[in-house]
Amino acid sequence: MSRAAAPAASVARPARPRVLMLGTDPGGRGGVATVVSLLRQDGLFEREGVHYVPTHAEGSKTRKIGAFVKGVWGTVACLARRPDVVHAHAASKGSFVRKALLLGLARAAGCKTVFHLHGACFDDFVAGSNGLMRRWIRHTLEKSSTVIALSSRWADFLRGFAPCAKVAVIPNSVPLPPLGEDAVQPGRILFLGQVEPRKGIFELVEALALLRERFPQVELAIGGQGALDEVQRRAAELGVLERVTPLGWITAARKQEELARAAVFCLPSHAEGLPMAMLEAMAAGKAVVVSGVGGIPDAVRDGDNGLVVQPGDVEGLAQQLARILGDGEERLRLGRRARATIEERFESGVVIKQISAVYRQLRDNNIA
C-alpha cells in the first residue's frame, strides 16, 4: 500500500506592514539619516511594524537616480500590501518632489499619509517657488493625513502657508549617552554639521580669533564636510589656523568621543530645522551656544539650558563662548540643565510614543 503524498510545503507570506516609511538611506550622512537610524534602533520599527524604503542615496547623479527608481519600485510593491500609514521624511527641492509623488501614489492606494518635514530652509523653498509649485506644495501638505513639524515655529509657518493642513509638533529624538567629565579638554569648542555659510561656521572662526588672547588653550574642532578649505583659508587670514582642527565626517562612535572632549558645543546657524547635533550635545551634558533660529528656541532657553546668540553677530558669539570657557561652574550648570531638557522632552522613548500616537489616531479614526 503506497504512502499518502505529503502535503506541499506552504510558503509563508511576509507580514503586512502596518507602516511604510520613506526617506534617505539610513546608512548615509546627515540629520535625517540619523533620525531614521535612531527610530529603528530605539524600537519604533518593531513596535509599529514599520517597513522602510530608502528613496535617496548619497553619491553620483546616477546613484541618486538609481536609488529613487528602486525606491519607487519598493513603494509600489509595499502599497500593494495595503499598509495603514505611509510616513515620508521630507525636506526641500528634490526631496519634496520625490516624497510628494510617492505620497500621491499612497493616497491613490487608499493609505493615510504622514508628511514629516525636516528641511531647515523649507520656507525659502516655498518663497522661491513659482505659482504652480507653490500650489503643489500646499496641496501635498493639506492632503496629508498629518504633517509633522519639528517645532512650534515650523508648525506656525506650515499652518500659515497651508491653513487646512493637520499639523502636529513632534521633535527629533536623541538617546542619552553615559556622562563623564574626565575627557573634557579646556578651551575645546566643537562644531558638528555641514561646513557651509548657513551654519555660521565663518562667524565661529572669527569669534575664535577674538578669544585667542584671553583663552590660550582655545581651539575649534570641526566635524563635518563641505567648505573646509575655505574655512582654513579664513582661519589663516585671521591667524588662528593652528587652532582649527578639521575632523571631516565622523562616525556615531567618534561623535560621542568628540562630544566627551568638548568644553562647549557651538552651532551659530542662520537657518535650522531642529539640529540633531545640538540635541546630541545636550544629551551628552554639554553647554551649548546656538543661534535662535528655526526650531532651536523650542529646545534651548537662553541662560537656562544653553546660551543663544543672534545669527551673524561675531562679537556676541565670542562673548557667549567666553562666558562658558571662563566659568567652569556655569559650564557644568548649563550642561546639567541641557541634559535634563533632553530627558524630559527629547529622549527617544518620549518621541517614539508621540509618533505611535499619530499612527494610532490615524488607524482608529480612519482619517484619510
From TrEMBL:
CDD domains: GT4_PimA-like. The keyword Glycosyltransferase applies. Residues 188-340 form the Glycosyl transferase family domain. InterPro entries: Glyco_trans_1, Glyco_trans_4-like_N. Coiled coil: none annotated. Residues 19-172 form the Glycosyltransferase subfamily 4-like N-terminal domain. Keywords: Glycosyltransferase, Transferase. Pfam families: Glyco_trans_4_4, Glycos_transf_1. Belongs to the glycosyltransferase group 1 family. Glycosyltransferase 4 subfamily. This is Glycosyltransferase family 4 protein.
